[in-house]
Every structure is written in C-alpha cells, then in structure tokens.
Design brief:
With 560 residues, this protein is of the alpha+beta class. The protein folds into three domains: 9-16 and 124-338, Jelly Rolls (Sandwich), CATH 2.60.120; 27-102, Immunoglobulins (Immunoglobulin-like, Sandwich); 344-559, Rossmann fold. Helices cover 26% and strands 29% of the residues. The protein is built from 15 helices and 32 strands.
Length: 560
C-alpha cells in the first residue's frame, strides 16, 4: 500500500477503513508484542507479564541474532524516535529480570513515512484514508464523492491529524467557497447560501474549504476559526495541508502546516472546539464528502481542480512530522506529474511490433455472459489503437493486442506463467486489471509482494524497455467488498511509489476505473461497463478518446 485549493473548506470525513487497536494489558507468561509505524517513529506495545514490571526493548539487526538494547521501560509501550523515515525496523521485547521470557521478532507491515501514515489511516475503522485515481482525481465543480461506511466512527476521535493534498484549477473562481472535505449529519439541511458565501459555517458540519484570498477556514457548528495562509497554496503545483488537533486540560490546540511551513496555530480555552471530531456541535456525524457538499440531495460548493489524498488519523503527528510529510507528499505528486508513465507514448510511436498483453481474471477475459456478443474492453482498446489511432500506418496496425485473461486466474498464477507469456507473445506492455480473483482473498500483504514482482518483470521485457499498466479494480456497489477494493487500490499506490522513489516509474501507468450501476450486472462488467473501461484505459495511455469506436451506435444500443 494512492491521491488543493486556495482556501480549504474541508470536512473531516471518512472512507476506507479498517481497524487495529492496541494490545490489551493482561497478565500472561508470554510476551505478545506489536509494532505500529508512524511517519518517523515506531510505537511498540506488549502485554503485561505477571510478576515482571520492567522490560528490555531490543532492535534486531540484519541477522536475527544481533540484538541492540534500546532502553528498559516500566509499562507496556515504548516509542522509538530513532526509526527515521522509510524504514521497517524489527524489535524483540524481553523481561528485564528474566530474559528467557521474550517476544518473537516483530515489525509493522508498513514502512515508516507516507506509507505508514496513509496505510494505518486506511486500516483503522475509526480513521479514514482515500487515494483518488492513482494519486489524482479531477473535480469539475459538479462532481462530489460521498462516503458513509464507518463514517460515524470518526466521531469517536478526540485528537488526530487531517492531511489533504490538492491542486486548484488555474481558472477557478475564488470568490465563492469550494469545499475540499465536509463531514456532517446526512439529514441536516442548511440554507444553501451558507455553503457559498462568507456566512457562518452550516450547522452540524465540519469543513475544510478553499475560498477567496487564500484563507483556510476550519469551522465547527456556529463558531468559525479562520487561518490566513497568505500565498501558501501553490499556484501551479500541488499543495499538501496538515491540521493537528488535540486537547490538554481545557485548552484545544489546532496547528496548521502547508507544504512544510507553519502557517498558523490556534489555541482555544473552552468547550466548543474540544476533542477534534468528538464535539457537541455535531450530534450525528455520519456522512463525508470530498470535492463539495451535498445539502438536501443537491451538490453545493463544488471544488474545481484535483484532489490526490485525504487522510484522517487518530495519530497526533508532531509539528516536525507534519512539516516533513507535507513536503514529501507534495514533492511526490509534483514528481509523478513529470515522471509516472511519461514514456507510455513510446507504445504509440512508429516502432514495429508494440505488442500489448492483457492479463487478469474473468473481466479481462470478457466472456459472452458479460458482453452478449459485443466487444469486451480489450477488444475495444485494440480497435482504437490499431485502427482509429493508427494514422493508417503499417506500424500503427502492428500494435498487436493479445488477451490472456481467464476466469479464476490470480496475480500469482500470472507470475508463474510469465516466462511462457514472454516466450509465446513477446509483449512490450503488460496490462493487468485487478479483479475479484485477487481482492476476494483479502490478503494485501501477499498481494503487495506479487504486484511488486509483476511490475519488475514487466519492466524487464524487451531488454529493460517493457511497460507495466496496472488497472485498479472498480467498485461493485457492496459496502464491505468496496472497502476491501479500496485497500487494494491503496496497495497499488504504495508499490508504484517505490518505483517512483527509485526513478523507475516512467514506464508504469496506473489506471483508475469508475463504473455506474448501469455498467454492472451482479457486480461484474456488462457491455456498457466494458465499453467505458476501454475508454478510461485509452484516456490513461494514449491520452485521448477522440473518435473512440462505435460511440453513437453503442449508446443507442445500450439505451434500447
């Protein structure tokens, strides 16, 4: 294990979630330890062993037998501040007065850094993280994404951090509010103008927004807190905003960072800002939207631009961690604009035999049961790149497209067959769409390793000139399954980021697929779904859908 504006009106909301809670403290004769990675530190926790008050915390070296004592503590928790960023340290806990009683070697499944912050927020049921469209989602002022699954659990948060990465449309209108994130009572109805003007924040809602004069507003109930962040929002590139909120005694602290810089802090003594999302201003927080608000069924204050990541975590990140995170994510997104998939145009040049091989499960296979005699999305794509966009050249017509999709086939199966694919088809680009064959296993750790291997093998094709096209899975309209699908989408972002950090992502393309209920039958693509998936694939690779085949005819057929 995915992803924005002049004035942020962000409602703390949620999406994609899963949970892990600290180990219970109980008396035992064995030590069960766990590690939770943070941005630049690790929290190690363990159970209480009866009759033993002190514990030795060891860091494990490359050799499992090499242990370095970090500290001795009283209690069942220790935070290793020396972990650093992008590390995956291992630890052993031993009783101080009897080291024969010890834990096994433990580590987190995430590396410290961006991966840990986003991964744990996605995994915790009362946290929230979403990566949009392989890191970017375009909003036109009318599109609003909504989430409700487990959103009510956000109201449990009494402290935490909100992180948002966005890029405003250069032509946006700044006189009105544009909402990045909004969390509210779904049934609460607010006077429409309150979303669009400088009036007090709508009731029963918390929002981050962009408005005029680059003012960041954090609103709770009828009270309003405004942060003037001047020119902190980038005019052309990406902006990452971070808010850390917590309470000590009777004082609430709100600390803001934009792209690594401290913009403003706000301290309030009283009650109305207490406890982060767990406050009396919202009586029923159960609905989260990104890119605008939904008021009485109508979209309001739509954002124009791109939103990459939205994260809400119960972790109170330090000021230095938020500053480092916002810089790292912004740099990553700006770099992705330049490098990620930047060489895919070579698959559409005048070279002979730019062969594509599509692999995956039943939706890649695209059987008759799905398409009812029409083309599946692979065939639509073939028609488009070999004929419509071939410029009638011999090289264009030799952009051969092969389909090795098969119902029941997993990514592990594909890796095992990779050599035979290479020998039989000699592809230059491998395109893999994640399907239910993989995400139904709900094993993201194994999938991460397999995806890393698939991309590596694909890039090695044709004497290190191959391409990897990763098609994220589409949602199916089932809340529980869609939550698992989002986890797998997050894994794609995390693995691709590894290649980005290694300056090896120019030949990797990530495709985000959106479908509607009309595009599915029993959760599987139908004729319309295959047609739309092919369009989205074309937009992400050849970067156009102009004259996409059979557009008018197909629309008529699907309406009949």
């Amino acid at each position: 294990m995915v992803k924005i504006r002049k004035v942020l009106f962000m409602s703390l909301i949620s999406s994609m979630i899963i949970g892990m809670s600290p180990s219970n403290v109980y008396a035992s004769e064995t030590i069960n330890a766990r590690v939770e990675a943070r941005y630049s530190s690790n929290r190690i926790s363990w159970n209480n062993v009866s009759g033993h008050d002190k514990y030795n915390v060891y860091k494990v070296g490359d050799d499992d037998t090499k242990l370095s004592l970090i500290t001795t503590v009283t209690g069942q928790e220790y935070i290793d501040e020396t972990a650093g960023v992008n590390t995956q340290e291992r630890y052993v806990i031993k009783c101080n007065d009897d080291e024969s009683i010890q834990s096994s070697i433990v580590k987190d499944s995430y590396k410290t850094g961006i991966e840990a912050v986003q991964g744990h927020a996605r995994d915790e049921t009362n946290n929230f993280h979403v990566s949009l469209s392989g890191g970017k989602e375009k909003f036109d002022g009318n599109t609003v994404l909504e989430f409700s699954h487990n959103i009510s659990l956000l109201q449990e948060l009494k402290k935490g951090t909100v992180l948002i990465s966005f890029r405003p449309d250069k032509e946006k209108i700044v006189n009105n509010r544009e909402i990045l994130l909004n969390v509210k009572d779904r049934n609460a109805v607010t006077p429409s103008d309150n979303y669009l003007t400088g009036s007090p924040n709508p009731a029963n809602c918390i929002s981050f927004m962009q408005g005029d004069t680059n003012v960041l507003r954090y609103d709770i109930g009828s009270n309003l807190v405004r942060y003037n962040i001047g020119n902190a929002v980038a005019e052309d590139g990406w902006t990452t905003y971070g808010l850390t909120a917590y309470t000590e005694g009777t004082t609430s602290y709100f600390k803001n960072r934009v792209n690594g810089k401290q913009e403003s802090n706000y301290n309030h003594s009283g009650n109305y800002l207490h406890n982060f999302l767990n406050n009396s201003a919202i009586t029923n927080l159960n609905f989260l939207t990104i890119g605008g608000a939904i008021n009485n069924g109508v979209n309001k204050a739509g954002f124009k631009g791109e939103i990459a990541y939205v994260t809400i975590t119960d972790e109170v990140m330090s000021e230095s961690e938020v500053e480092a995170y916002t810089v790292a994510v912004t740099n990553k997104l700006n770099k992705m604009d330049i490098s990620l998939g930047s060489q895919i145009s070579n698959m559409f040049n005048d070279d002979v035999d730019n062969t594509w091989l599509f692999v995956g499960g039943e939706e890649v296979q695209g059987s008759y049961n799905q398409v009812q005699g029409m083309r599946n999305y692979v065939s639509h794509f073939e028609e488009y790149i070999r004929w419509t966009q071939s410029s009638n050249t011999t090289a264009g017509k030799q952009r051969f497209v092969m389909n090795a999709g098969k119902k029941g086939q997993t990514l592990n199966d594909i890796i095992n067959k990779f050599d035979s694919y290479k020998n039989e088809f000699n592809p230059k680009a491998m395109a893999y769409m994640i399907g239910k064959e993989d995400y139904s296993q709900d094993d993201v750790n194994r999938f991460k390793e397999e995806l890393r291997e698939f991309i590596t093998l694909s890039l090695e094709l044709r004497n290190q000139q191959g391409f990897a096209v990763i098609q994220k899975p589409h949602t199916i309209g089932n809340v529980d399954t869609d939550a698992i699908i989002e986890k797998y989408c997050g894994v794609v972002d995390e693995v691709v980021e590894e290649f980005t950090n290694a300056n090896n992502d120019q030949r990797i393309v990530v495709v985000e697929h959106d479908v509607t209920d009309e595009s599915l039958k029993d959760g599987v693509l139908n004729q319309k779904g295959h047609y739309n998936i092919g369009q989205q694939l074309s937009e992400a690779t050849i970067e156009t859908t102009s004259l996409y085949p059979c557009t008018k005819v197909l629309i008529l057929i699907l309406k009949i």
